[in-house]
Amino acid sequence: MSKTVPILLYHSIAEEASAQFRKWAVRPRDFAAQMGYLHENGYTPMTVTRLARTIANRRVPLPERPVVISFDDGFADFYSQAFPVLEFYGFTATLYVVSGYVGGSSQWLHSQGEVERPMLTWEQITELDTAGVEVGAHTQTHPQLDTLAPGIAREQIQGSKLVLEQQLGKRVVSFAYPHGYYSPIVRNIVRQAGFISACGVKHAMSSVNDDRFALARIIVAHGTSISGFRALLAGEGLRVAPVRERTRTRAWRFLRRSMVILRTRSSMGG
Fold it and tell me: What is the DSSP letter of 133?
């Protein structure tokens, strides 16, 4: 069984964005057209958890034309711009929430000039959960987990899960790595915390053979046309998971960790 599944990755659905953040802001009219395309072409949206359960147990069937629609961060425009479209078509989605900024703004996006982008409130998240949107965890403050000490990474992962479960009154079983960054240690912490799946990025097609704790997703960026969207769904030019970690990915992780260590030493005057 080698069925491929596109896991679409969105962030913000908005007209306005800073130059640095624009890639991650899909215009509402483009998002509506993309969802219309899925509907017209017989795609069946499913949650990340449903896909993860199929990977774990092949007796759990997939629809004929499966697709997963995922959103990272928990921006307020999911509620105002994305959800009405999803609801119109009867589509489900998986929404990964940065728990520490709920009801506030995107403070971690200082370098991208977006610290004032509004986040969902707990009331909205609860309403979305009740309406059938899967809510997953995305840490407390959106750090690069693979550069943190294991204890701090564990606090970020477990803490986000705990507060979401307290607010929703149910188990939260799916996680997404901020920036798509993880390591074998981070992956194990996620598993030990009680999640049954975790999403990376990789810009690749997922499949029923994918790693449940490193699911591949496809970035839907600002300006993606319908022809480009169709190509993404078909996996044109994309790798198919499971995807081995590239040497350049490990090198980039080493560089980022080194930068963190240097900044820490500099702040301590050492």
Answer: P
**What secondary structure, in 3-state letters, does 156-214 show?**
HHHHHHHHHHHHHCCCCCEEECHHHCCCHHHHHHHHHCCCCEEEEEECCEEECCCCCCC
- Cβ 158 vs Cβ 186: under 8 Å: no
Spatial separation of the C-alpha atoms in residues 26 and 259, rounded to whole Å:
31
- pLDDT number for residue 258: 46
DSSP string, 6-54: -EEEE-EE-S---TTTGGGEE-HHHHHHHHHHHHHTT-EEE-HHHHHHH
Residue identified by tokens 């993404």 is: 232
All domains of the chain, ordered by start, with CATH?
4-243 (3.20.20.370)
Please, what is the average pLDDT of the chain?
92
Encode 206-254 in three state secondary structure: EECCCCCCCEEEEECCCCCCHHHHHHHHHCCCCCECCCCCCHHHHHHHH
Whether the pLDDT of residue 267 is over 80: the answer is no
pLDDT tops 70 at residue 255:
no
Taking 80 as the threshold, does the pLDDT of residue 199 lie above it? Answer: yes
The bridge status of strand 7-10 relative to strand 25-26 is unpaired
* pLDDT confidence band for 129 (50 / 70 / 90): very high
Q: Report d(CA 93, CA 135) in Å as an integer.
A: 9
H/E element, 108: none
Q: How confident is the model at residue 265 (pLDDT cuts 50, 70, 90)?
A: very low
